[in-house]
């Protein structure tokens, strides 16, 4: 389970941020109508992916390197 392994949890969070940002780039109205509540988490992840995209990209590269070569 990803909850008990810190690296798996980080991988899931990075994938969630990248997926939400990609979905928002394709269909902005899909995430923009749910800015609050439980589904607002996806909108917030999309905003993080858009605003911090260089940092998210570096984190994805580092995570991919660690999964492929360190584990």
- Unreliable stretches, pLDDT < 50, 5 or more residues? none
Instruction: Work out the radius of gyration.
Output: 13 Å
Q: How much helix, percentage-wise, in residues?
A: over 70%
Per DSSP, what share of the residues sits in E-state strands of 2 or more residues?
A: under 5%
What is the straight-line distance between the termini? 16 Å
Q: How many β-strands, per DSSP? A: 0
User: What letter string, H or E per element, gives the SSE order?
Assistant: HHHH
The coarse overall form would be: globular
Q: What structural class do helix, strand and pairing data support?
A: mainly alpha
Mean pLDDT: 88
Count of structural domains:
1
- Biggest sheet, in brief? none
DSSP helical segment count: 4
Membrane topology: Single-pass type I membrane protein
Keywords: Golgi apparatus, Membrane, Signal, Transmembrane, Transmembrane helix
Function: Involved in the early part of the secretory pathway.
Protein name: Protein kish
Structure notes:
This protein has one domain (6-70). Helix 1 crosses helix 3 (40-51) and helix 1 (6-26) crosses helix 4. It contains 4 helices and no strands. It is mainly alpha-helical.
Give the gist of this structure.
This protein is mainly α and 71 residues long. It has four helices and no strands.
């Amino acid at each position: 389970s990803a909850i008990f392994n810190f690296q798996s949890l980080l991988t899931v969070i990075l994938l969630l941020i990248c997926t939400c940002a990609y979905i928002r780039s394709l269909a902005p109205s899909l995430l923009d109508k749910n800015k609050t509540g439980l589904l607002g988490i996806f909108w917030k992840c999309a905003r993080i992916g858009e605003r911090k995209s260089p940092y998210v990209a570096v984190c994805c590269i580092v995570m991919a390197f660690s999964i492929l070569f360190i584990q």
